[in-house]
């Protein structure tokens, strides 16, 4: 009996030991290594086999026909279960995506002139493709990878670096490691796309970096035109035309080749049609399109150039704003940003973010865009603050390093950028921002009164904007943040009120006076420079005002 007991105890101990070793073996590499580079001998993937049918013949997709990747098992691992919302996890229809093979054919959307271009592959540098992702669906991620391998000359793809930005499912990336050229980095915590991309760029070894989102499909001959342009011009970031993959049915839809990237003063990205001036600057419809802004996610850049000009602002979190920062920076610091019409890559555009923002979506976007505005937009940042008043007091972190970068690179002004790269955005003369000051150097000041119906006063000009910052609009308004300066019902007092189309709120600032647009009443200061009232216009120093722009050259 005693013997049997001893035997059983040893069995249990041995089993526990075995189990612990197995668990350690399975999990230690995935939890302790900060950057989880998976060396070749760890590429043991249950989905990898030699293609049992024919090692020579075509696999499910072209991986040199050496390996067989069990796509079905990979996708089955995370399929939508009955009753689950197919849009729930990814904000696109995952059920449809999961049913579309990774190596599907897509129609060639290139213009005919593109198809007769002859790219000398031997003369082109190889690229590392960097794809960061957070909780991407397996089917879209796999299609991105497969489309790169299937539609690029093999010698031009050095490696595909997946940066798993702390996704819940670690296997989504790990299982792809059997695919040739695929490397994986995993962050230790959620970083956001900027820091994730920079990690990927740091690990990259090819002379050119190509960034893609994790739900893309590269078209035939997408890569050569991008690399060719980088050979022609080093100080450049180049983007393909971004075709649309429907978030509902995953159809590949051609995007217009006559668009460039732009923005509004909220710092929201938008597509603009090419102006006549843009068209005149191009000899052919396949010439590069000079673009004020990139959409953000899809571009190639020489690796050293990317780091020389300051990679990214690594204090930007999660999502958003980095495309403004990099576009302003490249243009202002003597480079160029272009869309190359012969290169086309599809992207699943969606209507909302499928993932969480630890600090909230709004605050994160405000922080990121404020960082871009503060460093690159000079006085024009006032237009941003006018459009987004909440950003003014918002903490955006330390900017010293990025400002130093701008100084070190001897970059041009934002005015230069607007005049030369995005003239459509140059504010018109009736949209000025500045101070309204009188002969004694006292400025019109809200004195911090912001509620509807409060009065304005005068205060020595301090040059800091804020309460003394006024913006004129094409509706002849004079505004501070979102409030307007209007006359009261008796046309004697000046009030800060809600903006409206009433004649009380329309002003003419042309003659060193501030005069009601439809009436002979002018801003008149009190003799002691404390308040302002409306009086009949006459030639007197108490009605002399100067609008002086805060905008720096
Ligand atoms: C666009 C860009 C995107 C980025 C963004 C502005 C295109 C086609 N897309 O928004 O690349 O520039 O504007 O910031 O130009 N991701 C992470 N970690 C995160 C959040 C996102 O790795 O915390 C990944 C995400 O999985 C995806 C990429 O970053 O691969 C871009 O995110 P998105 O697809 O949600 O952004 P999108 O296309 O709406
Ligand atoms: Mn995307």
Automatic annotation (TrEMBL):
GO function terms (MF aspect): carbohydrate binding; metal ion binding; polypeptide N-acetylgalactosaminyltransferase activity
Main subcellular location: Golgi
UniProt KW keywords: Disulfide bond, Glycosyltransferase, Golgi apparatus, Lectin, Manganese, Membrane, Metal-binding, Signal-anchor, Transferase, Transmembrane, Transmembrane helix
Membrane topology according to the record: Single-pass type II membrane protein
GO cellular component: Golgi membrane
Annotated CDD domains: pp-GalNAc-T
Compartment list: Golgi apparatus membrane
EC class name: transferase
One record GO biological process: protein O-linked glycosylation
Cofactor or coenzyme needed: Mn(2+)
Record field: transmembrane: 7-28
EC number: 2.4.1.-
Pathway: Protein modification; protein glycosylation
PROSITE patterns reported in the protein's UniProt record: RICIN_B_LECTIN
Highest taxon in the source lineage: Eukaryota
Pfam families, sorted: Glycos_transf_2, Ricin_B_lectin
InterPro entries, per the entry: GalNAc-T, Glyco_trans_2-like, Nucleotide-diphossugar_trans, Ricin_B-like_lectins, Ricin_B_lectin
Residue span, Ricin B lectin domain: 428-548
Similarity-based family: Belongs to the glycosyltransferase 2 family. GalNAc-T subfamily.
Protein's name in the database: Polypeptide N-acetylgalactosaminyltransferase
């Amino acid at each position: 009996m005693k013997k049997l007991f001893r035997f059983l105890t040893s069995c249990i101990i041995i089993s526990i030991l075995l189990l612990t070793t197995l668990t350690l073996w399975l999990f230690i590499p995935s939890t302790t290594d900060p950057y989880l580079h998976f060396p070749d001998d760890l590429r043991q993937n249950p989905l990898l086999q030699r293609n049992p049918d024919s090692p020579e013949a075509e696999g499910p997709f072209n991986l040199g026909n050496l390996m067989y990747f069990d796509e079905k098992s990979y996708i089955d691992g995370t399929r939508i279960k009955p009753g689950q919302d197919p849009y729930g996890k990814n904000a696109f229809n995952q059920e449809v995506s999961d049913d579309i093979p990774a190596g599907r054919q897509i129609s060639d959307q290139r213009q005919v002139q593109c198809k007769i271009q002859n790219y000398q592959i031997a003369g082109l540098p190889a690229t590392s493709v960097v794809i960061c992702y957070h909780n991407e669906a397996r089917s879209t991620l796999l299609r991105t990878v497969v489309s790169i391998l299937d539609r690029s000359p093999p010698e031009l793809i050095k490696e595909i670096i997946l940066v798993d930005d702390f996704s819940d499912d670690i296997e989504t990336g790990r299982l792809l490691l059997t695919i040739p050229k695929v490397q994986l980095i995993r962050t230790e915590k959620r970083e956001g796309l900027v820091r994730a991309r920079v990690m990927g760029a740091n690990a990259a070894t090819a002379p050119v970096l190509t960034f893609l989102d994790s739900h893309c499909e590269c078209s035939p001959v997408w890569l050569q035109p991008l690399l060719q342009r980088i050979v022609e011009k080093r100080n450049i970031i180049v983007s393909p035309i971004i075709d649309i993959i429907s978030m509902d049915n995953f159809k590949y839809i051609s995007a217009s080749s006559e668009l460039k990237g732009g923005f509004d003063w909220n710092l929201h990205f938008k597509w603009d049609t090419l102006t006549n001036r843009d068209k005149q600057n191009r000899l052919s419809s396949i010439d590069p399109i000079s673009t004020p802004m990139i959409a953000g996610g899809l571009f190639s850049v020489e690796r050293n150039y990317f780091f020389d000009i300051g990679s990214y602002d690594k204090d930007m979190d999660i999502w958003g704003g980095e495309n403004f920062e990099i576009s302003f920076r490249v243009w202002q610091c003597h480079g160029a940003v272009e869309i190359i019409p012969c290169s086309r890559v599809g992207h699943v555009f969606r209507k909302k973010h499928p993932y969480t923002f630890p600090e909230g979506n709004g605050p994160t976007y405000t922080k990121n865009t404020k960082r871009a505005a503060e460093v690159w937009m000079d006085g024009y940042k006032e237009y941003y603050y006018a459009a987004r008043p909440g950003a003014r007091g918002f903490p955006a972190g330390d900017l010293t390093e990025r400002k130093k970068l701008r100084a070190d690179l001897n970059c041009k002004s934002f005015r230069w950028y607007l005049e030369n790269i995005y003239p459509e955005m140059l504010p018109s003369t009736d949209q000025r921002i500045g101070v309204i000051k009188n002969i004694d150097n006292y400025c019109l000041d809200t004195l911090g009164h912001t509620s509807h119906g409060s009065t304005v006063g005068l205060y020595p000009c301090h040059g800091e904007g804020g309460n003394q910052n006024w913006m004129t609009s094409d509706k002849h308004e004079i505004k501070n943040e979102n409030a307007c300066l209007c006359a009261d019902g008796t046309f004697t007092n000046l009030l800060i009120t809600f903006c409206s189309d009433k004649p009380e709120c329309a002003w003419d600032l042309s003659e060193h006076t501030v005069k009601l647009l439809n009436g002979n009443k002018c801003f008149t200061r009190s003799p002691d420079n404390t308040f302002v009232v409306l009086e009949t216009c006459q030639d007197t120093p108490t009605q002399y005002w100067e609008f002086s722009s805060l905008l720096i050259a």
